[in-house]
Amino acid sequence: MSKQTYRICCFQRKFKLKEAEAPDEIKDLFERFSENGIMTAEHLCKFLIDVQGEENVTKEEAETVMESALKLVHEHLNIVFHRKGLNLDGFFRYLFSDLNVSISTDKKVHHDMTAPLSHYFIYTSHNTYLTGNQLNSDCSDVPIIKALQQGVRVIELDMWPNSSKDNVDILHGGTLTPPVELIQCLKSIKEHAFVASEYPVIITLEDHLTPDLQAKAAEMVTQVFGDILFTCGAECLSEFPSPESLKGRIIISTKPPKEYLESKKPSEKDNGSQKGKKSSEEKAWGAEISDLSQKMKAYSENKDNGECQDDEADSHHENPNIQQNIAPEYKHLIAIQAGKSKGPISEWLTVDPIKVKRISLNEEKLINVALNHGKDLIRFTQRNLLRVYPKGMRVDSSNYNPLIGWMHGAQMVAFNMQGHGRPLWLMQGMFKANGGCGYVKKPELLLKTDANNEVHDPKRLLSVKTTLKVKVYMGKGWHLDFKRTHFDAYSPPDFYVKIGIAGVAADSRVKKTKAIEDNWIPIWNDEFEFPLTVPELALLRVEVHEYDMSEIDDFGGQTCIPVSELRTGIRAVPIYNEKGEKYPSVKLLMRFEFVI
């Protein structure tokens, strides 16, 4: 036990900094699964089966866990023991350790990877080359490398002629973003494509090139990627291949190329700016996740005329009289052809039994289409790919609620990866699933048809499948990862936890614990229940905040976990910062249980 001193004017306030101590429920469990104050491997095995829900664990596996736990305790205490089991302190340290986290860390892919690409949610980035905002930040291969290292599988590149019209640059057209050369981006993609995952990388291209530069781009793509480039000639695919069959491959996706079209001037381009002032909380850690039912209700007031404008590269003039001189070597590289989402919705959502395609919608138009054509979207995405991307007004590289796309079957929900905030935390949480490989199998209800060939209706309220019971015991580690006065200049922090579900509208809700005053190691012992109708799409949101009476509450960390990947029982929950980087020491101790 140590003391911390805080100064207020000419006064000093002293607070005791206690060592973390096991909550009473943990002490009771230790008594139950130990003998004479020692938990042996046999006791641990019974604990793993009865409490942690690891029904298939063997005594040999329990002995391996015990050896690792003893090693952990010995390293912490810096002394050598020959004890054959854990005492209470050792058991408590084990529960809080990386040996006992809430989601498996073995990076094992466990979904069926042999279905067509259209059956998966795919980790997708938007304008991947940008280092910051959409208007004047640098273009670079650095954010592309970072995205690939995080497991992102879809990289977006906007191709433009360079200033001398003799080479290809990557930049955000009609803005002041300094360019990066295409060749540099391609080389970095090849070098880092399969560092985090062996499953295919898809490069979506926005093409603003003349035919001679299309040919040059094709030559660069072919030379850099060589045999790992997946092509299918000039023919359209009749069905998408599986991620398993495309391991280690690079795939190009874009619209069939056009004659280069001059862009609008920057002043004409509808980049806009976000209207309205942000709340102090939004400035601190991002906007709260929008309520799905309210969001869609707001759009329902808009008159739907059954038509939609083409969403990809829609800020550029097109002249129908221009001769379309397409570079054939470039066209043959396009394995996933992007179609137009223009004109009557019923036309471009029609499922072609002979060929498959990809279409793109911005976040607002997705909602507009989903309101009256939700079932059509789900049917379309059973065979075809749907890419959703941020609206043009998000010049600050913020993001939107990804669940709206996922619940309608959209595979490529494209996000600005260079920012931070609650929507991006959901994206990072979703793709912790399936070993972090960047491909997550869609729920069966989005893939199947019934006896009448009807698909799932996303507006239909489903019955509760299961209820997730969560208990938040305590947290620790902030005093190691933060300065003494980071949260409060005059006293230790007053932490509380916001916990909730992001999922379909019926499942989404947020609750919170009480605030524990003046304590770096808070003990809450608060319990919550979350009924779930579609647990396959549910993400458990956890945020820690420090209560501040006079100002905005401070951010103390967050995590987001796919409910389908949760390990039941008492688990350590690592906590991450605003950017999704794990804190070295901060963890929560929680308990998870599913009740049918």
Please outline what is shown here.
GO terms for molecular function: phosphatidylinositol-4,5-bisphosphate phospholipase C activity. Residues 441-577 form the C2 domain. The protein is of the alpha/beta class and 596 residues long.
Can you describe what's shown?
- The protein has 596 residues and is of the alpha/beta class.
- The protein contains 15 helices and 24 strands.
- α3 crosses α4 (88-95), α5 packs parallel to α6 and α6 runs parallel beside α7 (211-225).
- The relative contact order is 0.13.
- Mean pLDDT is 88; it is low at 259-277 and 313-323.
- It catalyses: a 1,2-diacyl-sn-glycero-3-phospho-(1D-myo-inositol-4,5-bisphosphate) + H2O = 1D-myo-inositol 1,4,5-trisphosphate + a 1,2-diacyl-sn-glycerol + H(+).
- Its EC number is 3.1.4.11.
- This is Phosphoinositide phospholipase C.
How many strand elements? 24
Helical region count?
A: 15
Structural class: alpha/beta
* Shape assignment: globular
Task: State the low-pLDDT regions, or none.
Answer: 259-277, 313-323
Fraction in helix:
10-25%
Quick check: average pLDDT?
A: 88
Strand content: 15-25%
Return Rg in Å.
26 Å
Distance between the termini: 44 Å
Q: Biggest sheet: strands, sense, closure?
A: 7 strands, mixed
Topology, pairings included?
Layout: E1 2-8, E2 11-17, H1 24-32, H2 41-50, H3 59-77, H4 88-95, E3 120-125, H5 142-149, E4 154-161, E5 168-170, E6 180-181, H6 182-192, E7 201-207, H7 211-225, E8 229-230, E9 250-254, H8 280-285, H9 292-300, E10 307-308, H10 328-331, E11 334-337, E12 343-344, H11 345-348, E13 358-362, H12 363-383, E14 385-389, H13 403-406, E15 412-415, H14 422-430, E16 439-441, E17 466-476, H15 478-481, E18 495-502, E19 509-512, E20 523-532, E21 539-546, E22 554-562, E23 569-576, E24 582-595
Parallel strand pairs: 3-15, 4-7, 7-9, 8-9, 9-11, 13-14, 14-15
Antiparallel strand pairs: 1-2, 3-16, 4-5, 5-6, 10-12, 17-20, 17-24, 18-19, 18-21, 21-22, 23-24
Keywords: Cell membrane, Hydrolase, Lipid degradation, Lipid metabolism, Membrane, Transducer
Domain C2: 441-577
Region (Disordered): 257-285, 299-320
